[in-house]
Write a structure and sequence with these properties.
Elements (H helix, E strand, L loop, with lengths): L7 H15 L7 H7 L4 H7 L3 H12 L3 H10 L6 H23 L6 H13 L6 H15 L9 H15 L14 H16 L7
Length: about 200
Amino acid sequence: MEPQRGPARVRILDAAHELMLTVGLARATTKEIAKAADCSEAALYKYFASKEEVFIRVLAERLPKLAPLLHALAAEPGRHTLEENLTEIAHQAALFYEQSFPIAASLYAETQLKRRHDDAMREMESGPHKPIEWLDAYLKAEQSIGRVDAAADTFAAASLLLGACAQRAFAYDATQDGVRPPVKEFAARLARTLLGGISVAGESA
């Protein structure tokens, strides 16, 4: 008998991630995911209530860890410089959207599928608005200790930074060379630009 490749839950998430990237979220059925994971569909439902939950867990566990970074920074404002923190956030966010966009894009092609996923994300208190809320919370924490201008609109700043990172995932496909800006340089430039609008005058720390 061929040895198992690891715990069933891990195999399911690995298989789901691969299928969502190759055939798209709409066509990655629980039956196909279970088959690729070498388990039964019933076994899949032992770990996940629905395909929507599988999708959310793939985003949380198989892509760059944006949420833990934002939560950690919000819990400890004042650690490192603002520029360093914003650069790291932009770096991780750009990678997250680059890897999640091909998975999530097919949601927008089918209205009913997207509605079902939106409902599931609400029930699980998840969704694409959450990183904006988490970054807003971090910026408010920095604002509370005087490192972000008291007049700065932290929600708008969070939306601008994460919106630019999401835009990088697809906006450059139609350019002459079809190449995205290098993520490291992109993150540093984005952080410096945002910092100019929200930091206390003369403050980069």
